[in-house]
Structures are given as C-alpha cells and as structure tokens.
Give the backbone structure.
Amino acid sequence: MKTDMTIDWDDDESCIVFIDQTLLPGDCRTVRCRDTDRLARAVMRLEIRGAPALGVAGAYGVALAAVTSRQEDLADLLQEVASAAESLKKTRPTAVNLAWGIDRVMERVRGAQDAGDVRRIALAEAKAIAAEDLETCLAIGRHGAGLLPDRCTVLTHCNAGALACTAWGTALGVIRSAAGMGKEVRVVACETRPLHQGSRLTAWELSRDGVDVTVITDSSSAAMMREGEIDLVITGADRITRDAVFNKIGTYMHAVCAHHHGIPFYVAAPFSTFDLSEGERDVVIEMRGRDEIAFCGEKQLVPDGVEVRNPAFDATPLSLVTAVITEEGVISPPFTHHTSPEGEVFKHVTSGDSVTARRPVTHRLKTGVHHTLPSG
C-alpha cells in the first residue's frame, strides 16, 4: 500500500506541503505553500479536499500564519493569526473539520506567554492533529474491516481515501484494511460529477494499491444494486449532524437506492466530523461555480445563458444510514443529545467484528456540547 502524505509540514522551509489533487490522475505534483492566502486558494480550488485533510490544513494554516508573521508583540500576533484563521474558515462553510482544526489550534495558542510561544504551540498542535488523523484513519479501518464479507463488492462515492486525509483514508481505509486481512474486495467507484473525484482520485488510489476497482457513472449505481452486483456501500462524510450526514452531492441518491434494495449503507468518519449541536436545516450547503458543470476542460457542455445548480453536498437522513464507522468503533443512529452527569459523552459502541459486543467509551465532541451516541 502507498503511504504518500497528502498534506504535511516542511520543517526546513517552514511551509505546508500538499498534493495538488486537481492535477490527478495525470500528474502527481506537490506544492509548497508559504502563506495563508495561497492555502485559502488551494482549499477553494479543491487542491486540498476531504474532511480530515481540511482539518489538518486548517491547523497547519494557523501555524503558518504564526510562523510567517513579523509581529513580536503577543496581542498583535494573536490578532493577526485570528484574522487569518477566520478567513480560512470561510473558504468551505459546509465541511466542519476545517473550522475544527483551526479552532483547536487557536484555543491552544491563546494560552501562550509570548510570540515565540505562539509559534511553537501552534506548530506542535498542528503536527499533533496530523499525527492523530493517521492513527484515526487506521483505527476506522480496523473497526470497519470486520463489516465486510470475505468476498464482496463495495460501492463508494467521491473520494474518502488517503487523498481526503493525511494518509490511508476513511471509507477507503476500511477497504484497505479489509484487503490487508486477505479479504477479496472489489470496489465500484462512482465517477462523482462534476469534478470526478471518484474516477480521478479514488480509482487512482486503489489502482496504485492493486485493489480491483471499476468506475461507473453516478446514475449506474441503482441498476447495479437491482442486479445484485453491490453488497454494501461505504462513503465518507463532511459533516454529521444529529439528523443527517452531509457528503458529496449524490450520496443521498445512493443511500435511497441502497435502502430500497436492502443493501447496508455505511459512513466512515472520525468524531471530528460530528457536529451534533446542529440539525440538517442549520447547515449551509456550499454552492460551487457554474463552470464546473458548464465546461469539461475547454469543451462547453451547457449553452450560454442557461442556469446551472451546483451544490457541493447533499444531506442523507440518518434513517438511511446503517451505521457510522468511527475511530472508537461502529455506532448506529439515532444519535441523541444528552450528557452524562460528568459532562462527558457516554456511548455504546458496537465493534465491527461483532455486532453484539458493546463497550462504553467517552469522547468529547466539538462546540462545547457533549452528546450521547447510543448504538441503536
């Protein structure tokens, strides 16, 4: 399995290094990012994309703002870094991990004693988030691998692989872990219009790993399910609210079809993607530009003057989700909103290896609100 880092920090040059995903699969090229304006542009252009990777990018963005600032007064430096952080947050409003990574580093630097302390703390915390992301993906893979039969065909949408994280991946991490256990896993990757993250990125990743992968048009999935060619669906998530999973546009369609055909629909995501203080109607769906649909490269696909609608994400009700595969285990909806007396999340987690095994786990979620996540 390839272990290239999607996003990393270069200590020698004090900059962020990332794979420009817009160039794949034809060209795998890394970019050295030396200021937060360039980072913001990379996020908006989807050079960096995927919920966990955006969390790491946000964290490194705060560190980059601190390291490159010329301010030596503590208050002035914190103000400048905070301004850069707020600008980065606005680049992708739906994907919650970006704000999560930024906020986590900002919370740590507010306790700094001087400007040098801000820089050290910011970089250390950002590196910790990146390291945790890899461990989280590996744990998600371990928990989810047990859900896959020894021989199966998995449908996935968009790209929830190593390119969406620092490495390994969430949905594709489950597939990689299952393949590593000796399971015979075939993957059907939906092309994922309009930017083809499935055909460009997922197929690229899996083909490099020697995993059997077939690309289909997004509209082919229902027919394949009806013909009995799909055993289960695994996707990633950009935000999980108390009543819905937000993921790349088209995910809801696959969930409805899977539910109709009695096919398990799993979501693989870290706890940093949960935002249980929000409901579906509270979340702003990012709308992308017209040209993403109206053109394919230089080829015009939509007549001039014709409107397009290009949402980046859709919402899948939790009633259509079989379970969410997390770093702590596999949890089943519904997710409730209560806290334990100690203010900790206290949930039952169902192991991917045994649907009857339960164990209590505590975990703090974002927004300062703590929630109970029962297994259902």
The radius of gyration is 20 Å. The CA atoms of residues 150 and 183 lie 5 Å apart.
